[in-house]
Amino acid sequence: MIRGRGLEKRYGRKRVLDGIDIAVPRGGFAVVTGPNGSGKTTLLRLVAGLATPTRGDLLVDVDRSRLGYVGHDALVYRELTALENLDLFGRLYRVPERRERIGMLLERFSLWEARNERVSTFSRGMTQRLALSRTLLHDPDLLVLDEPYSALDEAGVALLDRELGELTGDRTVLVSTHDPARLEPLASVRLALA
């Protein structure tokens, strides 16, 4: 599903990625690791179609509407409620039976009680759980997750572990992390950036 050869990304004179190769089969679970500044986020942005490589070839064999992305920014509207956010994204993605799907995700991610509160009142962990709900709402074929454990409490971490475990083999997943041991049992592809 993802094939990149000799990927390079520059911002002006600064080289962020230099000759990176990546291959993730459909249904594969790829874990990208490396220190801060190694290009993990840049690589995930390339795969998500949010940036283009300066050099190299990249093929992501999925319709963009079938991609789910979690980045450093939650990509939700802070002035809307959790329910309003998911309803908006559900309409944009034309999610069938969206009200039922939204209710299920809000319940699963422990946000049901806060569904009518504005996101601006949420903790960082609650906002991250809402971002994960947004990402899974349209049941994407490819998940691109940049440090998805960021700001999650123990319950949120356990929830994400369970969700990723259930998706393994059924969806293609590309995830960056500073804690590769946590995802090692799920990983079919490993890429360490320097």
Report on this structure.
The chain has 194 residues and is α/β, with parallel strands linked by helices. The chain has a single domain, classed as Rossmann fold (3-Layer(aba) Sandwich). It contains 6 helices and 8 strands. It has a 5-stranded parallel sheet, sandwiched between helices. Helix 2 packs across helix 3. The mean pLDDT is 96.
- State the secondary-structure class: alpha/beta
Mean pLDDT: 96
| Number of strand segments | 8
The quaternary state of the protein chains shown equals: single chain
Distance between the termini: 24 Å
Shape: globular
So how many helices?
Answer: 6
The third-level CATH topology is Rossmann fold
The percent range for helix content is 25-40%
Judging by the overall fold, what is the CATH architecture? Answer: 3-Layer(aba) Sandwich
**In the CATH hierarchy, what is the class?**
Alpha Beta
Strand content: 25-35%
**The CATH homology group name:** P-loop containing nucleotide triphosphate hydrolases
What letter string, H or E per element, gives the SSE order? Answer: EEEHEEHHHEHEHE
Low-confidence stretches: none
Total separate domains: 1
Trace the largest sheet across and list its strands. Answer: 5-6-7-3-8
Rg from Cα: 17 Å
Q: What's the main sheet like?
A: 5 strands, parallel
In short:
The chain has helices spanning about 40-50, 80-90, 100-110, 125-135, 155-165, 180-185, and strands at about 1-10, 15-25, 30-35, 55-60, 65-70, 140-145, 170-175, 190. By secondary structure, it is an alpha/beta fold. α2 (about 80-90) packs across α3 (about 100-110).
